[in-house]
Design a protein that fits this description.
alpha+beta, two-stranded antiparallel ribbon, elongated
Length: 131
C-alpha cells in the first residue's frame, strides 16, 4: 500500500463527510466522522499540548481545516505557569499547506505551534484508517 500525507487523508475525509451531509447519507457520514476522530488521536498531545488537539468538524471544509488546541507554558524554572488557547487553520497551497495560528503569541509560541502541526500533518502514513 502506498503512503499518503496525513493531511491528504484528513482533507479527503472532511470533504467526503461534507458530501455525505449534503446527500443525507447518514451511514457514511458517521464512518467518515469516525476516521476523522481516529486522526484527531494522532495530533499533538503532551509536550505542552497537554489537553490535546481537536479537529473542528463543523467548521472544517474542503477549503480549510480548523484545529483547536491549547499550549501549557512553563516558566524557565520548569514550573507550569499558564495556558494559551489557539485555533490552527490549515489551507492548501500549490506547494503543500499553509498554517495560521490564532491566539496569544506568548513566548513566541505561535511559530512553534505551526511548525509542530506542519510536521505531524505532512507525515507519511501507510493506511487510510478504513471505513
Amino acid at each position: 500500500m502506498a503512503t499518503r500525507k496525513l493531511i491528504e487523508i484528513l482533507a479527503s475525509r472532511i470533504k467526503a463527510r461534507q458530501n455525505c451531509a449534503e446527500s443525507q447519507n447518514a451511514e457514511w457520514y458517521e464512518k467518515h466522522s469516525e476516521v476523522i476522530d481516529k486522526i484527531t488521536k494522532m495530533l499533538l498531545s503532551g509536550g505542552g499540548f497537554d489537553s490535546g488537539s481537536v479537529i473542528d468538524k463543523t467548521s472544517s471544509n474542503d477549503k480549510k481545516i480548523i484545529i483547536r488546541t491549547s499550549y501549557h507554558h512553563m516558566h524557565e524554572s520548569g514550573v507550569y505557569d499558564g495556558w494559551t488557547h489557539h485555533t490552527v487553520t490549515i489551507t492548501p497551497t500549490f506547494a503543500g499547506i499553509d498554517i495560521k495560528v490564532s491566539g496569544s503569541n506568548r513566548n513566541n509560541i505561535k511559530e512553534y505551534i505551526a511548525d509542530c502541526f506542519y510536521e505531524v500533518l505532512m507525515s507519511d502514513v501507510l493506511h487510510d484508517f478504513g471505513g
